[in-house]
Amino acid sequence: MVQILGVNFHELKLVKKALETFYALGPRTSERILAKHYIHPRAKMGSLAPKTVTALTAELSTMKIENDARKEVQDNIKRLRDMGTYRGKRHGQNLPVRGQRTRTQIWTARKLNKIERRG
Amino acid sequence: MSVPNCMRCLTRPSAVATAALRPFTVPVSVSLTAAGRVAAFSTTPAQQATPQKGSKTPAGRMDARIKRMANGHVRVGKRLHVGGKKGGTRPKAPLPGERKAYRKRIQLSNSNALPVKDLAELDGEHMLSEKNVAKVLSLPTAVIDQLRTVEAFKPTQTWGLFRDPSLLIRPETVDLMNRMQDSVANKQTLRLVIDGDKLTGKSILLLQALTQAFLKDWIVINIPEAQELTAACTEYAPIPGTEPVQYMQQVYILKLIQAIRKANEKVLSRLTTAYAHPELPQHIPVSSPILALANAAKEPDSAWTVFSALWKELSSNIRGRPPILFALDGLHHIMKISKYRNAAFDLIHSHDLALIKLFTDYLSGQASLPNGGAIIAATSRNNCPVSASLELALEQRLATQNGEEPPAKKPYFKGYDSRVEGAMKSAQVLRIKGVSKLETRSLMEYWAASGLLRTTVDEVAVSEKWMLGGNGVLGEMERASLLTMRL
């Protein structure tokens, strides 16, 4: 097991995929992080040197990921609602925000559009 | 009219039906079940056997739900269970890497093939003489081990069909071996690229060069697949203090050092170091054995330093140092921009990777081997990335060698690479084609003697296979005559 930012990963997991498990860290960012630390794209967690693991953790701790990124989204929604905008109101009602029909097919909005949005 | 047995059970009639058909059979031991059936013998394993009605096991409860016909046959609910939790255990999944190891295994012997009698064993002189052209000769066991260590055999080649690995001597073989011989005599570096169509035997010719080098006690360094170096599948790191920045591939180089050490042990054990190497992780005093220097590579981090020191020793201008053969297969892969990226997220050119830079420096003639030797690269035409500069350079070198006007660059094409042109500016090109009918005949006789070709080897058969193989393309002939067999 290799620990990055407090999360344990299996030794056979690809480093790229492991980085992408963090919220708000996608394929483009993970590619750049790998290049910055001279890790080849097919590297597995088990092949990382301890100092690289430390460097990765240090790098990730300066980035806006996981709860910080979630907080940013929630703040944005909250700001919309506090301003009393239509978009803020629709978020509060768990309804589509951008003029979609509400007769059918609003599962995604029901799931995601909340004031305290999870992810 | 309905049949007494259901269609599923026709192949194995029930005990009732058997009893009805053969009324005189008296079972030795009779056990009566609740349904009153006789079970004298069954091939069903105990685990899968239908449990008795009313038993407490899950299978027994299920059995109670199964609807039985009056004649004792099961019409519904009797289905083959594949997977799922019911039934036996699943077979064990292969361990990580096991499938790949099976796919990449090298089989060099087939005990079902006939041993070929009167097959001479290769020695250092066989491949130098014109009179051995079109002969098939077997590889000595010691050299087989060495070749295996440097990964000269490939899984796609047909070694696994024959009793022992053997090689066909071609005119190109004799030509190449004589050029290698001359390079040692003149203390020059042979810089050569083997090119040719698909399946014409480029990798085998490279293997013959490696064989000859081992037989002649050269030091052999082989990169069996150049794509492993540039496809971004092995560790890399910038080498400190290099400008422009070069990159080492620690893990690959550590493996390479170990292969060099193991394959060339006989030659290296005679040599001693001539320089002090203060940069090494462990102290190696001057005139200690070179094997000790090679053994200093234990960690990937120090691998490049050790390799540089080893190369400095081997390629130094000291009397008694043996010639070196540095071979590489899959030249196109190192004549392009690699898949690696630097910290600024720019792609790294293959020639910035230190090991490849070393190879191209010698291929271009920027550096030379003072004790003679050869830098040989083979192209691979099946797995061949586009490299316009390399293709052009190959055509230009060939035209120059034949005394023709070399073709010019396309004026408005932007895909040329000046570094590739520089690397290829003065290398020789050996283009190989199909074999002659004489060689085909010799090869087919070898196949027939191995018991793999069951036709008379006469002029008609030879011509047929030669033509089926695209005018003597070796791999195509193998496909046409060996690989289509239903073994």
What's the number of domains of chain B?
3
Fraction in beta strands of chain B: 5-15%
Classify the secondary structure makeup of chain A into a structural class: mainly alpha
Cα end-to-end separation of chain B: 48 Å
The two chains with the largest interface, and their residue counts, are: A-B, 12 and 15 residues
Q: What is the typical, i.e. mean, pLDDT of chain A?
A: 94
The total tally of domains of chain A equals 2
Protein name (chain B): Small ribosomal subunit protein mS29
Keywords (chain B): Mitochondrion, Ribonucleoprotein, Ribosomal protein, Transit peptide
GO biological process, one term (chain B): mitochondrial translation
Subcellular location (chain B): Mitochondrion
Tell me about this structure:
The complex is a heterodimer of chains A (119) and B (487). Chain A is mainly α. Helices cover 48% and strands 5% of the residues of chain A. Chain A folds into two domains: 2-61, Helicase, Ruva Protein, domain 3; 67-112, Irregular (30s ribosomal protein s13, domain 2). Chain A has helices at 15-20, 27-36, 50-61, 67-82, 86-92, 107-112; strands at 2-4, 7-9. Chain A has a two-stranded antiparallel ribbon. In chain A, helix 4 (67-82) crosses helix 5 (86-92). Chain A is elongated. In chain A, a hairpin with a 2-residue loop joins strand 1 and strand 2 (7-9). Chain A contains six helices and two strands; from the N terminus they run E-E-H-H-H-H-H-H. The longest helix of chain B has 15 residues, at 171-185. Chain B has three domains: 1-76, no CATH class; 176-432, no CATH class; 435-481, no CATH class. Chain B has a five-stranded parallel sheet, sandwiched between helices. In chain B, strands 1-2 form a two-stranded antiparallel ribbon. In chain B, helix 8 packs across helix 11, helix 15 packs across helix 16 (459-468) and helix 16 packs across helix 17. Chain B is globular and about 90 Å long. Chain B has 487 residues and is of the alpha/beta class. Chains A and B meet through helix 2 of A and strand 5 and strand 8 of B.
